[in-house]
Design goal:
alpha/beta; Rossmann fold; Dihydrodipicolinate Reductase, domain 2; eight-stranded mixed beta sheet; six-stranded parallel beta sheet
């Protein structure tokens, strides 16, 4: 590999809110990126991020001015979803590759248009899928790939999170919490959809039925509940998002013809169950599961102390994206995968009946 291929990419950030504090450690410390600019409509937000990470970069409040002046090779678009379309187009037109936070758009049609624009520009466009690079998901994918589950038959994903307690549901704030057709739920839904697709190997659903609604009456959230069943060929899926149950959880269960496995992305553990055991072997299996959970508890405590949270897969994802760009390889998240996720998300959101 030539020295030119190893040169860090000039990187800029648009949107300096909370998610920028997850991307910037990689941009600042990985060696794969050279930070050149931060951009936010609030100069104070951009300045605060620069000060926090102790980086001397140009600060902007206008994305077009930043792109023209700094010419970044890669732009991280971390602003609210309703701004993504125009900002992605600006960055691509300026000759930059783009990493965009999810959801990249509000519909499959918009996603398809942006992917086409990236192809015309000859640039890489990637929607963030950090959970695919988290430890528990990598373990699940390893078990599935090894054949230990047999043929995957079912996948169930449950997200319980009180997002109504934050800006998405704060009744003291004007307007919708998220400007998306599927409301607050759609801000999280791509995570569930791409996990289902990756763990089952299916991209589309033959049927999607269930409830996508507003149960709280909080109209700022628009939609705050989702419980859908999917039939994807021989594979069955269930995706649920709820705000009114505790504790917060991101539970993932994959059931196969030979065995099943379960984990939680918020407080990871791994519970593997094979074919039914009888007699003395059954309580032995329960004891082994107990030891496994105890070990997971110690690991979770260590992770909490070390701040090894649900975003820990993001640096791995970004490293893979940067390497693909520098080495002119296919990115770890392909246009076909992004479009498949957007299309299935559309099917689910179409069930919506706002209060």
């Amino acid at each position: 590999m030539s020295q030119g291929a190893l040169r860090p990419l000039r990187a800029a950030v648009i949107g300096c809110g909370a998610i920028a504090y997850e991307h910037l450690p990689f941009i600042v410390g990985s060696g794969a990126a050279l930070p050149v600019a931060l951009c936010d409509r609030s100069h104070a937000m951009a300045a605060a991020a620069a000060a926090h990470f102790e980086i001397d970069v140009a600060l902007y409040t206008d994305a077009q001015s930043m792109l023209a002046a700094e010419r970044p090779e890669l732009v991280h678009i971390l602003s609210p979803p309703q701004t993504h379309d125009s900002l992605v187009r600006l960055a691509l037109a300026a000759g930059s590759h783009v990493v965009c936070e999810k959801p990249m758009t509000g519909s499959a049609a918009e996603t398809e248009e942006l992917l086409a624009a990236a192809q015309v520009a000859g640039r890489v466009l990637v929607e963030s899928r950090n959970l695919l690079f988290n430890d528990p998901v990598l373990k699940l994918l390893g078990l599935i790939g090894s054949g230990r589950l047999g043929e995957v038959r079912e996948c169930e994903i449950l997200l319980t999170l009180d997002f109504l307690g934050g800006p998405m549901g704060d009744r003291n704030l004007a307007g919708p919490g998220v400007v998306l057709p599927g409301g607050a739920v759609q801000d999280f839904l791509p995570h569930l959809v791409y996990l289902l697709q990756a763990l089952t190997g299916v991209g589309s659903a033959d049927t999607v039925v269930g409830e996508y609604s507003n149960r709280s009456g909080n109209l700022r959230a628009q939609f705050d509940f989702c419980d859908v069943l999917l039939r994807c060929g021989k594979v069955r899926g269930r995706l649920r998002v709820a705000t009114d149950v505790e504790p917060s959880a991101f539970r993932v269960i994959v059931r196969g013809s030979d065995a099943s496995v379960e984990t939680d992305l918020y407080n990871p553990f791994l519970r593997f169950e094979g074919a039914p055991s009888v007699g003395k072997r059954y309580p032995l299996g329960q004891m082994l599961a107990g030891f496994s959970l105890a070990g997971a508890g110690l690991t979770n405590l260590r992770n909490k102390i070390g701040r090894h949270g649900t975003m820990h897969g993001l640096p791995r994802m970004l490293a893979a994206v940067y390497a693909a760009i520098r080495e002119d390889r296919v990115p770890p998240i392909t246009p076909a995968e992004m479009l498949a996720t957007a299309r299935l998300t559309d099917q689910i959101v179409a069930l919506g009946k706002p209060a």
